[in-house]
Amino acid sequence: MSKYWSDMVKRTDPYKPGEQLNNPRIIKLNTNENPYEPSPSVKKAIVDEMDSRLQLYPSPTADGLRSTIAGALNVSMEEVFVGNGSDEVLAFSFMAFFQPGKTIRFPSITYSFYPVYSKLFAIPYEQVALNDDFTIDGEALFGSEGGVILPNPNAPTSIYEDLSSIERIIENNPDTVVIIDEAYIDFAGPSAVELIHKYDNLLVIQTTSKSRSLAGMRVGYAIGNRNLIEALTRIKDSFNSYTVDRLAMVAAKAAFEDKAHLQETVGKIKATRDWTVHELEQLRFDVLPSSANFLFATHQSVKAVDLYDYLKKEGILVRHFNSPRIDNYLRISIGTDEQMRVLVEKIGKYV
Ligand SMILES: Cc1ncc(COP(=O)(O)O)c(C=O)c1O
Fold first, then answer.
1. Domain Aminotransferase class I/classII large: where (predicted)?
2. Domains in the chain, please, with CATH?
3. Residue 153 Cβ contacting ligand 1 at under 6 Å
4. Of the candidates 214, 191, 206, 207, the residue with the CA atom closest to the CA atom of residue 261
């Protein structure tokens, strides 16, 4: 703390990302990255772009990428906003739709960036307890004063809420914006994007970081009514006109155009997920029903933190949260078949 710090800096409580270790031998199952490389056309698009245009600023409106995303999701370009990872799109959304003095609501166990943004932008928040089975208590999110945000599937629980429950949350907050953070939706059921023409208070946020293997390029996007998109654009253009760089833009566009690659890699991850759940259950884990590219699991007798330490020593990184109700769980990203085989083998030896 220093006397030179602004009040904004003083009230921050920064997010702590999962460790990124440089050792390539580590099996990294701690940040829900995709174990497969992006579509080969992504590399080609990046090389072509590097060969010619890096001395020029990227398009501030990102029309090419927005129209590709719009086409893929069956909406119009004016209903799409793109940003530097969905974390940035989330931050802009907090600024655009939530405000100091009006309490927003989100689940008590959820993406840990939401309280971080709330503190940064001085937005009061209420954390709504999850049900005993870790599903979201939808009714507790009805009638918020300042707005609602929740991920679907939720993180770190991995549980997907069906679209009718999501729709009831949107209907029951008619005067505020409801943000559905769909970072993991491609591993789950139908998206709330289909509801944006029915509800002008719905903003859906997705990312290319998970299903499209582009965590390193940082491209996230929001889909919603054009008035909401205009608000996000006004925030962006009051902050930095060029949040998505040229390479990220062409990479994300190429990833969206290769639907076969998406289907193939998502299919492999889901199959590996099913196999891993089965194996962990054999080893006496309780695993929450996952609709994401990660599992949330607790062992019937071994403590999560001991298992976390053991796995780290053995060269496998998973995520442990030292928070109430979930401190005896591990969040395990789904890797390749081989990585999961090694994980199961090591855990088998320990338990
Ligand atoms: C629920 C949720 N939302 C958003 C993000 C951020 O994704 P990105 O900024 O890479 O698009 C993550 C990343 O793990 C997440 O788990």
1. 25-347
2. 7-37+260-350 (3.90.1150.10), 40-258 (3.40.640.10)
3. no
4. 214
Contact 118, 103 (CB under 8 A): no
- Residue to mutate, 33, 210, 212, 213, ligand 1, most ligand atoms under 8 Å from C-beta: 210
For ligand 1, the distance from its centroid to the CA atom of residue 183, given in whole angstroms, is 6
Considering just the CA atoms, what is the radius of gyration of the chain in Å? 20
Residue that the structure tokens 């889901």 belong to: 270
Q: Is pLDDT at 52 greater than 90 in this prediction?
A: no
For ligand 1, whether the C-beta of 32 sits within 6 Å is yes
> What's the pLDDT score for residue 317?
97
Say if CB 198 and CB 79 are below 8 A apart.
no
CA of 73 to the centre of ligand 1 (A): 19
Q: Does the beta carbon of 156 lie inside 6 Å of ligand 1?
A: no
Q: 222-275 pLDDT, tens per residue?
A: 999 999 999 999 999 999 999 999 999 999 999 999 999 999 999 999 999 999
